[in-house]
Amino acid sequence: MNLKNISLTVGIAVLFSLFIGFAIDAFYSEPDYNTYCKNQFVNKFPYAEPSNRTACPPINYQEPVYQDCPQDKGYVAYETDQNGCQVKPYCETCQVAYDAANKIYSRNLFFIAAIIGIIAILAGLIFIKNDSIASGFMFGGILLIIYGTVRVFGDLSKVMRVIVLFIELVLLVYIGIKKTKKK
């Protein structure tokens, strides 16, 4: 391949994967943190400096919220009064709901990107006769699969990580064998 063909291949690969990535985001947006944790930081941070710290009521760490909240995977937050004192502790667990929604989104994004990536690779192998364009779509498909894998990787168990990477590696080796046999 000459420099023109390499440039065309890389250009198609990058633009195809960007196009698909932005198309997925346009039609299937990731969860918005503010939907789950509404106004969490409004009027809370930075805390107003109490004018007289000794006037603030003492915090009772024996209240049940301090023992129960970590078990609910939350953290203890406080409302503040007009003097800037921390009052009314409560367990904030909005992060748990956001993380669960984001985990589902990442899993779905993995499947969408993997399916489109495999279709692009197969199109490059079977349907497209121009080597530079076919290679561009194949490389773009590989980039999509990598993108989807990176998004879901942190949510997978160690065993599932190995299985996913093994399947992807076998797929690419198989494609490589098929592609080189044609020449």
Q: What descriptive keywords fit this protein?
A:
183 residues; mainly alpha; 2 domains; 6 helices; 2 strands
Brief description of this entry?
By secondary structure, the protein is mainly alpha-helical.
Low-confidence stretches: 42-47
Shape: elongated
How many DSSP H or I helices? 6
Radius of gyration equals 25 Å
SS strand fraction = 5-15%
Give helix % range: 55-70%
Average predicted local confidence, pLDDT: 87
Assembly state of the chains shown = single chain
**Number of DSSP strands?**
2
For the largest beta-sheet, the strand count, sense and barrel status come to: 2 strands, antiparallel
Q: How many discrete domains? A: 2
Please list the strands of the largest sheet in the order they lie side by side: 1-2
Which secondary-structure class do the elements indicate? mainly alpha
Distance between the termini: 14 Å
Q: Explain this structure to me?
A:
It is a single chain. It is built from 6 helices and 2 strands, in the order αααββααα. The chain has 183 residues and is mainly alpha-helical. It folds into 2 domains: 3-33 and 96-182, no CATH class; 35-94, no CATH class. The protein has a two-stranded antiparallel sheet. A hairpin with a 5-residue loop joins β1 (75-80) and β2. α1 (3-27) packs across α5 (131-153) and α4 (94-127) packs antiparallel against α5 (131-153). The chain is elongated and about 80 Å long.
How do the strands and helices of this protein lay out in sequence?
Blueprint: H1 3-27, H2 33-36, H3 64-71, E1 75-80, E2 86-92, H4 94-127, H5 131-153, H6 158-182
Antiparallel strand pairs: 1-2
